[in-house]
Amino acid sequence: MYNVDAYLKSLTSNAVKLSKKVQDGIVENTRDLRFENQAHFLDTNEDKMREIRKNLDSRYEKEKLDGLKRLIAMISKGRDVSEFFPDVVKNVASNSLEVRKLVYIYILRYAEQEQDLALLSINTFQKDLSDKNQLIRAMALRVMSGIRVPVISPIVMLGIKKCVTDLSPYVRKIAAHAIPKCYQLDPAQKDALIDIISTMLGDNSTFTIGSVLMAFNQVCPDRLDLIHPQYRKLCKMLVDMDEWGQITAMDLLLRYSRTQFLNPIGKSTAQPAPRAKKEKSVVKSFYSDDDSDVSHHSSDSESDSSEEENNSVDPDLAYLLKCALPLLQSRNSQVVLSVAKLYMHLAPAEDSYKIGRPLVRLLRTHREIQYVVLNNIVAIASQRPYIFDQFYQHFFVRSTDPVFIRNLKLDILTLIATESNITFILRELQEYVKSSNKGFVTQAIEAIGHCASNIPEMAESCLGGLLKLSYSKSDSVAAQSVVAIRRLLQQRPGDSVFMITQLTKALDEISEPLARANIFWLVGQYSSQLPTVAPDVLRKAAKSFTAESESSKLQILTLGGKLVALEGTASKTVSLLFQYVLNMARYDLDYGVRDRARFLRALVYGKQKVASVTVDQDSDENDHENGQQESDSTEQDPQIDEGGFEYSEKELNLSDHIKAILLSEKAAPVQENPSHGREQYKVGSMSLVLNRVVAGYEALPEWPKVQPDPSVRRLAATMEAPGYMNDRTGFGSDSAYAKSRQGQDSGAAGGKGRYDGQAGAYRGAETLDKFLESSDEETSSDEEDDSEEESSDEEEASDEDEEEMSEEESGSGEEDDDDEDEENEEEASSSEEEAILPPKRANGRRG
């Protein structure tokens, strides 16, 4: 019994000790995972500062990590911690990856201030370029290229050259990122960097090519000759690149296409052709993929459109558009805008309808993205409104839309209004007029006027609706309605009599100065068609002249002058009313009204002298000195007092031309869209959003007038990328070299109809049509070849095993197998004379 109790006590004590150790271990290991424990790194008192140096000199990686975290926290707070640079540099060769990352961040921050100490770590970075871990190799080159010390530019160049041939696509990607940094550090290295870029353009890894194109745009954007042999490969790889690589590639291919192909936009058909295409697909659902393909048309229309496209569009350009089309379904809005940019600036008009639905889809995102997309849609719709006319419902204003989104949607609705959708758009605009937001109501009324101007068939109904709005109790609504009516009447003079009569009836109820001034202008302009209405309007205006606004007084004076010029002295009533208005305006407080009255008095009554004008006594002498020739009858006396008029017998009498001056026809005002001018910028650019040129904007190059040589893009058929560039994977293992594609040698020996997947070109292809047809058949043919090769390899392997068993020495059998492999490789290389073989590794295998 005693032994059992002792055993239980010892077991209990051991369990307590074990649980305590486990708890301490868990607390120690999870200390960094608790958010409350991260705050102590921001503590910058003197005791903590002394602990940092102690932690950096510690032999434990965890203490070094704590010290580095505290330094990075101080850097984030803006504190200068460059005094710890020597202590940090000593840890650059640490075995901990986390410690190295923080050390690299610190070195990048203070390398320019401590250049001498930063050079101490260069040897470590050079050693890390040969590390087994691809992360270490990439980080070493990234930090070494980020140290902006001009002395190390040759070392950075050597590191780039070494990493360009690395087996890991991730390391090659970092090497491409280091090229612009090296160019900024030492521009004299430009020629060598261009050679490196030319080599890296042959990389078949989609993980790397985007960074290479970015380096190309920053170092040598004008060297488009380097793109010639890689054009078709870039088009094919476009769909597999990362999102930002796709944006860079499409921008580069756009510039390339504008300089290497003739303009296909001018060869396109008129707008009704794409409109007819869309009418057949209107019944499709919004998420239907049929709109992005021409499969929903009949076979006859397909053949006709394909023949027409082949006649007007270069095959290489059509291939680019075909490869970019799937990217319209990308989740990245900028990728979709880049594809829209290609179709707007490269594709014929009948193909641009494909970008309508994807752009409308982007309106379901955040409002910041909506604003950018809507600005681009405004620019596109101003040139090709038929792209979006079937999606008018998606541009209806919502109650939650901010002002900048609302105004853009109204602009788009006025641009895409057609005979088929104008009824629905006007019905929606009428609902907007009922809003309590006066600014929104004003914009809606202006949009109704724009729609009526664009579609004359709906002008009559729009005038009726605007006339009802002119009776609104809201002054802003009434004023904007009258302004819209005036613009429409100038475009449709035949409807002026009835509409002006109705407006004059509402003149007593309208109090807005802008609306009253426009009504007075309309009555005076069309007074010849209103012989009974116009004098009565002048009579009412004369009664309330003193209570009118400045703009209304000016129009009343003009109205009286027009009536006197029209009827002359035959109507004493009109003449007396006009003189009464002139006398009232003579003593008005506003100088503009007084000047207008003096001008009209002198113009209407001719040679009469204004009573308030006093002429200088020396005017005759000044006239004789300034101009002795009196034959110029149109020259006025420069010494007459300001505001006075005096006409001599030899001068032109303007009263004889008063009708031509006051009653001439006025041109209809041009309603300029607030977004006017955006169409001159590239789609997807910041300059288009801001409607002005911003720093860094590059206009599109002009189309060539003569077709450049298309054979330069066929050079890729005689080239192959090196073996280390044939790995199409991304961030992967670096334990072995990238394997060559199976069946390459057998395919090359099979004839000139073989498609080379590594070089991205069709061997022996005369036209792009054969090139495209062969790419579709590639998968099935490769599978058959692979299956045949596998079976043949198994038979050969079994024969070789039997031969080896029959021989006495296994070493001699292995030597014979090696000889046979070398002979097979020599035969394959001789059958493909044009190909450039990848370098051999030490074990005799191809890269």
TrEMBL record:
Under Gene3D superfamilies, the record lists: Leucine-rich Repeat Variant
Q: What keywords tag this UniProt record?
A: Membrane, Protein transport, Transport
Instruction: Identify the residues that the record assigns to the Clathrin/coatomer adaptor adaptin-like N-terminal domain, covering every copy.
Output: 47-604
Of which family is this protein a member?
Belongs to the adaptor complexes large subunit family.
State the name under which the record lists this protein: AP-3 complex subunit beta-2
One BP annotation, GO: intracellular protein transport
> Organism's domain of life?
Eukaryota
Its lineage reads: Eukaryota, Fungi, Fungi incertae sedis, Mucoromycota, Mortierellomycotina
Q: Which PANTHER family match?
A: ADAPTOR COMPLEX SUBUNIT BETA FAMILY MEMBER
- What are the GO cellular component annotations? AP-3 adaptor complex; endomembrane system
Q: Write down the InterPro entries for this protein, in alphabetical order.
A: AP3_beta (IPR026740), AP_beta (IPR026739), ARM-like (IPR011989), ARM-type_fold (IPR016024), Clathrin/coatomer_adapt-like_N (IPR002553)
Chief localization class?
membrane
Q: Quote the subcellular location field of this record.
A: Endomembrane system
List residues traversing the bilayer. Answer: none
Q: Where is the composition biased (Acidic residues)?
A: 301-311, 632-641, 774-835
Source organism of this protein record: Linnemannia schmuckeri
Region spans: Disordered: 287-312, 614-641, 723-847
